Amino acid sequence: MSDEPPMTDKKFASRVDWNLMRTFVDIVRAGGIGAAARQLNRQQPSISAALKRFEEHVGTTLLYRTATGVEVTAAGKAILALCEDMLESARLMPHQIAQATKRVEGIVRIQIVSGLVSPELDEAIASFHRRHPAIHIEIRVSPWRQVLDALERGEVEIGVGYDSSVRGSLMYEPMLVERQQLYCSRSSPHFGHRVSRLLELKDEGFVLTGEDEIELITHLRRRYRLGTNVSGLAEDINEARRLIVQGVGIGFLPILAAENEVAKGRLWPLLHADFEPSYDIFLLARSEPARDTATQLFWDEVIRRIRAQQKA
Questions:
Q1: Which of 181, 193, 209, 244 is exposed most, by the fewest CB atoms within 10 A?
Q2: Helix, strand or coil for residue 105?
Q3: What is the reported pTM?
Q4: How far apart are the C-alpha atoms of 93 and 16, rounded to whole Å?
């Protein structure tokens, strides 16, 4: 076998064993032949033999074994991209057939953080329902950590929320950048004024959002000793907003979730705009999905709208 560029083989597609492509992808994803054998519950010699047969079919070396696993050659990287595309196309076949024959039914289970404002998600739901009225859409609302846990346990197929780290078991598709503000009610002596030094507010009664609080906000509060005097608690952003509007205390809220109350003069943003904390909200799913057709179609609809918005 040579590392020289192989001659074009017009009969390649009819000769190659497509299962070898999947084995090649599994080796690369696992990081080595032994690791792939363990994941696939197969003997290591059979995995090595499959790789050798695939390299013989393509006529060049795709992987080099190293002390830590394998190194993908330039040809291997090109082949890997094509193999992944073909495997993804094969995975989508039953979904596309069901869509084409108008036989799509089922349930799409989504878990999201409270107070989320996303026109892209709203438009995707509306468009999806018009095209697939037989599919039931179920939305659960929970603190962001519970969104992640529910996805990992397989209780829901799609999530929308925040994550302070990266879980290898999940896929992350950036959806929007959410910003928060610190608000007070009209009855507060701070109403109508911006605060330059947050330490001035350390003794103020504070409305907390418990497990739903973003870690960035938690760190900010602790740095300036905000929330040492807890006057209210609500796990749901909408209920936290209710408590702040009614003067129970000051508190952080997503800007879009509070904008109507600000416009009505019932809430006042205390921070200068350049001090507003911001963070990513992600569309989430398991890394190794076994999605049914309904869920796959919904995922594709949301992704399409997110990427269209990013290009706009």
A1: 193
A2: coil
A3: 0.67
A4: 21
